[in-house]
Amino acid sequence: MVYTCIISDQMKYLGVRINASLKDDHDLQRQVKLLYCAANKLRRIFISALLQQKNSLFPALCMPMYACQLWSKYTKTSMKRLRAAYRNAYRIMHYIPRNVSVRPHQVSRCVRTFDALLRNTLYRFFNAMRIFI
Fold first, then answer.
1. Is residue 8 part of a domain?
2. How many domains does one find in the chain?
3. Tens-digit pLDDT profile for residues 79-113
4. Residue 124 belongs to a domain
5. Distance CA 130, CA 133 (A)
6. What DSSP line would sit under 3-41, residue for residue?
């Protein structure tokens, strides 16, 4: 009986793609696609929803970034794409024109900006790790 060993450059483990170079660019690209899908789905389904309802739906469906605490090796362009996708998802859902800044809208409606969301997620993760150490 002959056994063969399959060698692969990448694998998917718990929804996170791990490759031989240990870069997180594929995972960031996956998150960009998920953000656009969620924003378009919310816009299509909740087209006549009130502003308060949209503001409560956006954090629930567009903010979760699975395993973002583990992102450590990525390019600046992939993080810029994710940041732009987050802003565009907010624009798509709230019908904000492309020439208008999103940040004042998010701040006035108490919706976290992308940088604040990432900082808060990392802070909570590190605090949880301190409990176990």
1. no
2. 1
3. 999 999 999 998 988 888 989 888 888 888 888 88
4. yes
5. 5
6. ------SEEEETTEEEETT---HHHHHHHHHHHHHHHHH
